[in-house]
Design goal:
By secondary structure, the protein is of the alpha+beta class. The chain is 41% helix and 22% strand. Strands 2, 3, 9, 10, 11, 12, 14, 15 and 16 form a nine-stranded mixed sheet that branches. A four-stranded mixed sheet has the order 5-6-4-13. A hairpin with a 5-residue loop joins strand 7 and strand 8. The C terminus is likely disordered. This is Nudix hydrolase domain-containing protein. It comes from Leifsonia shinshuensis. Keywords: Membrane, Transmembrane, Transmembrane helix.
Length: 427
């Protein structure tokens, strides 16, 4: 039922947007109809036929122009971009930690992460919602229509974008500003910026990378950005018996088709504020990540024992969108979670949930090679959010809150002892 409502909502939105973009074609059609109807009333026939002919000519011209424009402009997946020019600008500055996962690039902002983790920043939502800039309406709007037409399961859910500066945020600042919007806003801005727009098959890119990287190869800050900059949230959950909860993304997942993702990952939403006018950024990040965890992995609120903020950064291949990460400790074991029935509304985006025992104990984790934390058979399908979550978790084991490291070691050490004992008995 939920899936049917979402498809119907998407179809109506798509139909309305199509009508708006083709308004002159619709107008010409109406004029043609009026001209034809006029043939049967007291208006002189030659006038009616003239109006009909003019309207039909306009209709043909508009249809031809519309179809020609569609053929001339194409959206193509950007060739593999390691953003070496962007990361070179950040080299030597300890604030920035570059994490690469299977050709994808993430810039971990250690300075911003520390301010958030220490509770020094609160988030407020500006009154006005995000409005797609005029420069993005034509091409961005068309890209959105094409994406929706190809996949009717896309749902126009609410979201929050980051509107404050990050790189140049004053040390004395205590608040950051978020902006309300929808997933369709994100499609026409963030996702549109992540592809190359070309015309007539030329190598000239009309839009794309320049929307979030300036001519000096610096990342554009969020306060001067044209994009929605939707905030991504992710958490890696650890069961009471020391297993990672991993979700397998479906091919219909817009972000990470067919890859292994964190226990819960998605977008920050207005409801994560719980009706509050402002909220600590770390608490808000955890609230959003745990909501996604509950929706995707069938976790109940009572299953959550504790959560910790892990970090903040920008996913360069996703138009340098802001991403926040957390770790969630559960008070239920993997056996209990395996027996639970999955929620129907998330099956279109998540193929399944698996429980993975780390291949290494925490003391041997290397943040620069986080994929080695997982068993060999899982490493080739690691998505960027999962790779970053594991890297930040490995980093926190050595430098984070003592209680986080203590709890993690306790759960995983017990898991390794139990696993080794089980392996010995089977041998």
């Amino acid at each position: 039922m939920i899936s049917l409502k979402r498809r119907l909502s998407t179809f109506v939105a798509h139909l309305l947007e199509k009508s708006a973009s083709a308004r002159w074609i619709l107008l010409s059609t109406v004029l043609a109809a009026v001209g034809v109807v006029g043939v049967f009333v007291a208006i002189p026939a030659w006038i009616n036929w003239l109006l009909a002919a003019i309207s039909l000519v306009l209709l043909v011209i508009d249809v031809r122009r519309y179809r020609l424009e569609q053929r001339r402009t194409t959206f193509v997946k950007r060739p593999l971009d390691d953003f070496a020019d962007v990361t070179a600008k950040l080299a030597g500055d300890e604030r920035w930690n570059v994490i690469r996962v299977h050709g994808q690039t993430f810039v971990h902002d250690t300075g911003m992460s520390l301010r958030i983790a220490e509770g020094r920043l609160k988030a407020v939502v500006q009154p006005e919602p995000y409005q797609l800039p005029r420069d993005l309406k034509s091409l961005g709007g068309r890209y959105r229509r094409e994406r929706i037409a190809k996949d009717s399961s896309i749902f126009n859910g609410p979201g929050l974008g980051w509107a404050s500066a990050v790189t140049e945020l004053p040390a004395e600042a205590s608040t950051v500003t978020l902006v309300r919007g929808t997933f369709f806003d994100r499609l026409a801005s963030d996702y549109f910026a992540a592809v190359d727009t070309r015309r007539d098959g030329s190598d000239t890119v009309l839009a794309g990378r320049r929307l979030f990287v300036d001519r000096l190869t610096r990342l554009r800050d969020f306060d001067v950005s044209w994009l929605f900059n939707g905030v991504g949230v992710s958490t890696i959950a650890v069961t009471s018996d020391g297993m990672f909860v991993i979700t397998e993304q479906s091919v219909r997942n817009v972000g990470e088709q067919g890859l292994l993702a964190p226990s819960g990952s998605g977008s920050l939403e207005p409801k994560d504020l719980g009706g509050a006018a402002s909220m600590d950024v770390a608490e808000l990040s955890i609230a959003g990540a745990n909501r996604e965890l509950q929706e995707e992995a069938s976790i109940e609120p009572g299953d959550i024992a504790s959560s910790y903020f892990l970090g903040f950064g920008r996913w360069l291949n996703k138009a340098a969108s802001p991403e926040v990460f957390a770790v969630t400790f559960l008070n239920v074991d993997s056996h209990e979670l395996r027996r639970r029935k999955r929620r129907n509304e998330e099956r279109v985006y998540v193929d399944g949930v698996s429980f993975v025992r780390p291949a290494l104990p925490p003391d041997r984790w290397d943040p620069s090679r986080a994929e080695l934390i997982l068993p060999p058979e899982e490493r080739g399908r690691v998505s960027l959010p999962l790779g970053v979550a594991l890297s930040l978790l490995a980093r926190e084991v050595g430098t984070g809150p003592p209680e986080l490291a203590t709890e993690l070691r306790r759960r995983l050490d017990e898991s390794f002892v139990g696993y080794e004992a089980e392996s010995t008995s089977q041998g």
